[in-house]
Amino acid sequence: MIAVHVRISGRVQGVFYRAFTQERARALGVNGFVRNIPGGGVEAMLEGERKSVGELLKAMKSGPSGAIILGMEFSELESKGYEDFEIK
């Protein structure tokens, strides 16, 4: 199991990016959260099997229609033990 913190910049607010991420995360069995951050970006904490987290990161790189991803930064952290995937 791995834990990854992600920050996404671009047009990701107001395009259902958080709901898109939550839907994909739950389908892949990834836990954590996603939330808007000041300045128009989104951040997420992802925990799960390496393959599932990798698939979610790939989906997040594209996002829903209407999203324009300009940048994506991520770093691996220690797991916090999230039990679901929430929108904050």
Notes on the structure:
With 88 residues, this protein is of the alpha+beta class. It has a single domain, classed as Alpha-Beta Plaits. 28% of the residues lie in helices and 43% in strands. The chain contains 2 helices and 5 strands. Strands 4-1-3-2-5 form a 5-stranded mixed sheet, with helices on one face. A hairpin with a 3-residue loop joins strand 2 and strand 3. The longest helix is centred in the middle third of the chain and has 13 residues, at 50-62.
Cross-sheet strand order for the largest sheet: 4-1-3-2-5
SSE arrangement, N to C? EHEEHEE
Could you say what the CATH topology is called? Alpha-Beta Plaits
Structural class: alpha+beta
The amount of beta strand, in percent, is 35-45%
Q: How many domains is the backbone divided into?
A: 1
Q: What's the CATH C level? A: Alpha Beta
**Basic shape:** globular
**N-to-C terminal Cα separation, in Å?**
23 Å
